[in-house]
Each structure stands twice: as structure tokens, then as C-alpha cells.
Amino acid sequence: MDWDDNESQAQFRSEVRAFIASQLPERYKRIARGEEDGDSEFGGWQSDRKSQNANYQQAAQAWAQALGEKRWSAPAWPAEYGGAGLTPFDQFIFNQEMARAGAPGMGVQGTGMLGPMLIVHGSEEQKKEYLPKILSGEVVWAQGYSEPGAGSDLASLQTRAVRDGDEYVINGQKIWTSGAHMSDWLFALVRTDPDAPKHRGISFLVMDINTPGITIRPLIDMTWNHGFNETFFEDVRVPVSQRVGEENRGWYVGMTLLDFERSNISGSEGARRSIEGLRDFLGTDEGKAVSRLEDLPTLRHQIADRYIEVEIQFQFSFRIISIQGRGLVPNHEASVAKLFNSEFSQRLANTGVKTFGLYSNLWYNEPLAPMKGAYTRSYVGSVASTIAGGSSEIQRNVIATRGLGLPRG
């Protein structure tokens, strides 16, 4: 691996930094500096676009327009579909600089998941209909995969779609539908052949989230954040033309992952910003007054360990992008990185709350809460880190079977 940018990469990095400095609305700069609250899960943009606050809406529109003019709304998409056609390393640099600045993307469900999927599996009519609206920010998407009885074992999903002429009639339930209350359309995996083996008989449908029969109910998590939802389908009618790919072959459509970005550099840079923010705060009079560093010197060692682990996290990210840069597809390497990153996020949050002792009992709206309760919120929120996106148990199985070649069972 080469840790240094070559000449063209250095030039592109400078271009991205200058763009963010000049075009990122002040709203998002203040959020990044911790001076203003933004949506903790969606970085502000996705909630701002539907906010009742006109200034928030204006910030979201201005940022979408700025990204669109540079074709950086979905920079890894091929140029013929409206993207910038970036190389894997350019994409890595772009995401790294966005994360360093705390700049929000424009709905990862559309730009990072559905769009690339449509480029591969969608009809020309579907590409013309959906891709431009993703790039402009006009339509934001939510993902309907998990169900109460089908999470890690997603192929056990039971939401049923019955063909009725030129429509499917859908009944069932999805859960953990992130951002559905702020989205316009939904893509979902549904069972169209209940008699087929569980990985078959599944189809991939897209639908307007305001279609009659769809009900979105909020799920408030332990941090009092409304990011998740339950989604109920009661005789929901969706045209057959909104099926992506073949009927009963939706599992393969849904599992399509284009080789654009698996490095999780956003997580790495977010952790770096977090630990550096802790370091800077502990150097202030306020930080010294509320921390336990003088009473528990071993906390210094724990903070140093977290610094080292941030660098390890970055190296995992850089390893994956280096694999991609050689035209290869990361497999068990991505599971190694995911496993380390999710468990590291819990250790980092744990160190933060230990550093402030009983002050960590104060929630973010308490005036004496250190760092506005940032580590208290991350500690509570990190419970799901080793579950979401594939549990640690699943990642260990992937590493064992695909990486180490160990037998199953």
C-alpha cells in the first residue's frame, strides 16, 4: 500500500477541500463544530429538506445544488448516469474529506444503494425515472428489508406480494426502516412465491411511500432519537412495472453490491474527530474540572489505546480501498474491518463516559453535561453497533469460513 497521495490524488483532495470550505452551508459547518444540533443519524440534510424551518430547507437545497453541479451527489456513479465516474481511490478521498469536515451526504439509501443497483438491474425506463431524482435530491429513499422475524436471517422474510393482473398486492410488516418518515419512496424485498426455497421466491419492488395502505410508525431508540420506524403494508397495490429484475429473483438484485465503497472511511474519520475532540476538551479548564484523569491515571492509557485503535481502523479502511484499487473485491477483509470498527466504537464510547465519571449521567440537554453529552449519547447508541449491518457473530462466521477456510457446522 502507498499511504501518500500521488500528484493527481493530491490535486483532487485539494479541490474537494476547497469545494467544501466554500460551498458547505453554514448550518452544516455549525453542526460539525458542535455549535448547533442536527439529526444524529442522517447528518442534518435528510431531515432539513422536509423541515418546517425555512432556513434548514434552504441549507439542504443549497448543498444539493452545489453537489449536483459538480456531479458529486453520487460521485462513484458512471458519468453516463449522472455521476462523476470517480476511481475507487478518488471516491475514498472524497468520502474522507467529507467525513473530516462533517459534511452530510445526500441520502445513502438512494445514492449508495438503490442507484447503483438500478444501474445494473434496472430497465431503461426505471433508470430514466428514478436516477435523476436521486441525484437532484428530489426523491430520498428508505430500505424495506428487515422484518420482526427476519433480521440477520433476512431470507426468512414473510411480507407477501400476490400478483393481481398488472399489480402486486402487498401485506406484511418491515421494521428498522431507517429514515422512512423523512423519505419519499421505499424499496423492499417481498415474497412472491411462498413455496420456493427461502432464498428464491423473493422479488424486489420500489414504491411511493405515500401509496395507500402503507403506514409508518416511529420507533424511538435509547438515545431518544427517531431514526427507525415500523412499516406496515395492508393491501398495498404496486404496479408490476415497479419490480426491479425478474420475479422471484429479487434476492440476487437485493444483494448486489457494486465495488464503489466498502472502506467505511466515514466511520474512521468520525472516530478520529471524536477522540481529538475529547483530547482538546480535556486540555481546557472546563475539561479538567469534570474529568477523572487526576484520580485515575489509567484513563490516560485507555485514551491512548483509543488513539492507536483509530489508526488501526483507518488502516483497515485503507487496506480495503487498496484491494479495490487493484480491481479486486474485498470479501472477508470487509468483515474483519466491520467487526473491528463496530466493537471499537463501543470501546471508544465506554472510555469517554469513564473519563467523566458521574457527569456522564447527565443527558445532552443538561447544562453541566461534558461536551454536550456527546459520549453519553454515543455510549447508549453504541449498543446496536455489533448488531446493525450484520452482527459480530455473522462477521466471525464469514471470517472463519471465507477467510480461514474453516468448515461449517
Walkthrough of the structure:
The chain is an alpha+beta fold and 409 residues long. 46% of the residues lie in helices and 13% in strands. The chain has 14 helices and eight strands. The chain has helices spanning 7-23, 26-32, 45-48, 54-69, 88-101, 108-121, 124-136, 250-254, 265-282, 285-290, 298-325, 332-356, 374-381, 392-403; strands spanning 141-144, 160-164, 167-175, 185-191, 202-208, 214-219, 228-239, 243-244. The strands form two sheets. It has a four-stranded mixed sheet. It has a four-stranded antiparallel sheet with strand order 2-3-7-6, with no helix packed on it.
Tags for this entry?
409 residues; single chain; four-stranded antiparallel sheet
Q: SS-based structural class?
A: alpha+beta
| Overall 3D shape | globular
Query: Order of SSEs, N→C?
Result: HHHHHHHEEEEEEEEHHHHHHH
Number of strands: 8
Q: Please give the share of residues in helix.
A: 40-55%
Quote the distance from N terminus to C terminus. 36 Å
Rounded to an integer in angstroms, the radius of gyration calculated over CA atoms is 22 Å
Give the low-confidence spans.
none
Beta-strand fraction estimate = 5-15%
Average pLDDT metric: 91
- Total number of helical segments? 14
What's the story with the biggest beta sheet?
Answer: 4 strands, mixed
